[in-house]
Amino acid sequence: MAECRARKRAVVLVPMPLQGHMTPMLQLGSILYSKGFSIVVAHSEFRPPNPLNHPEFIFHPLLDDSSGYKTSLVNLMDLISAINSNCRAPLQEYLGQLKKDQTLEGCEVACVIYDSVLFFVDSVATQLNIPGIVLRTSMASYMLLYRCIFQLQAQNLIPFPESRLQEPIPELYPLRFKDLPFSITAEISEELMDFFDSMVNIRSSVAVIFNTTDCLEHSSLSLLQKQYQVPFFPIGPFHKMAPAASTSFLEEDQTCIAWLEKQAPNSVLYVSLGSIAIINEQELTETAWGLANSGIPFLWVVRCDSVNEAQSVDHFLDGHFKESVGERGLIVKWAPQKKVLAHRAVGGFWSHCGCNSTIESICEGVPMICRPLFGDQRLNARYLTCVWKVGLEMENVWDRGSIEKATRRLMIDTEGKEMRQDMLLMKDKIEASLQKGGSSYESLIDLTQFINSFSTAARE
């Protein structure tokens, strides 16, 4: 606790142990550390962060018996439920001990910042009289979609007719009913509605932090701020705010950077569908041959568990494919994505459109092929293709001919070149928001002052 004593004020972070959630939380920790706060990370035993990557942080494991869980789309809700249930008691004990110790250590717990899916933290913080702040790891617009589900439920419109899914959602154009995070064509269970409630109800939390910026989501942020009585702090993109060590759960193959060095500027299509998505053997084969037939150089991430945990990618791709591609393509198990997107050779990104991937691609001016799979990815893809117009939609299309065509459209055709120019303009706007006087810069100042306004005396 020597670090804590020196800095006087500590912020406790409670992250959700999924790659797309852990990354922005630890990035936020680096941002707040740069502003003078001591950072304490109270984390589940499931997929714990590596303390060696953040020696300036204090890490405390919550003994929650969640280590046996596996991450997949099938049991994701089970994992969220288990962590919310099993982490409550150990977090309450730990925070209670921190409050007792702070008079001895000279370090005050200023607040707790927690992932929005870990709604149990709110009640723990409230009971201990510690201010709680929600971190939204998705775009701000995503909160509006959850509110829409509640409105449909209240109007008895669920189940919703499948024939109407393509219709735009009133007040949220161009988002459609099909872009909602969960299917509404069947009855929604009470358990799932409780989860939705956790996504829109900030309970007694005193603020909300977003990994976004006003220039990307001005209208959504304005609409949300009118609906909630607590301050919002859009201080993104986090990874551009403060330098941070790797937060990857998977080992990053750095050799791909050397391969990129041999490629021409803007010539390579980077392909990655994130850390969770699983595709079948046919989809893998069609993707492979679509890329091969396009004639475009590509860097393709295929995780060990992307198709079948028991098989490597070599099991599914024959020698003819490798002969056809030669040195033009490189397949890796995981890549240092921010480095890849920042490389001059990368001219396009075929992505699942997770929030982190979307923001990272925009920050580097790289246009996208959008293949959303679940959750907020459909919303992000819709914004990329229809609002910002810097992406091509590939949803529900997975044959080699369509993949070849989309790849060439993005990488060679005039359409793709125009998207690249528009994406570079977006990049410039984001960079301006990070400079003094910019929206994210000023919002971070406001957040720092807000956290510093909390005092033990005022809460006693």
Automatic annotation (TrEMBL):
Belongs to the UDP-glycosyltransferase family. GO terms for molecular function: quercetin 3-O-glucosyltransferase activity; quercetin 7-O-glucosyltransferase activity. InterPro entries: UDP_glucos_trans. Gene3D superfamilies: Glycogen Phosphorylase B (3.40.50.2000). Pfam families: UDPGT. The lineage of its organism: Eukaryota, Viridiplantae, Streptophyta, Embryophyta, Tracheophyta. Keywords: Transferase. It comes from the Eukaryota. One of its GO terms (biological process) is (-)-secologanin biosynthetic process. CDD domains: GT1_Gtf-like. This is Glycosyltransferase. Coiled coil: none annotated.
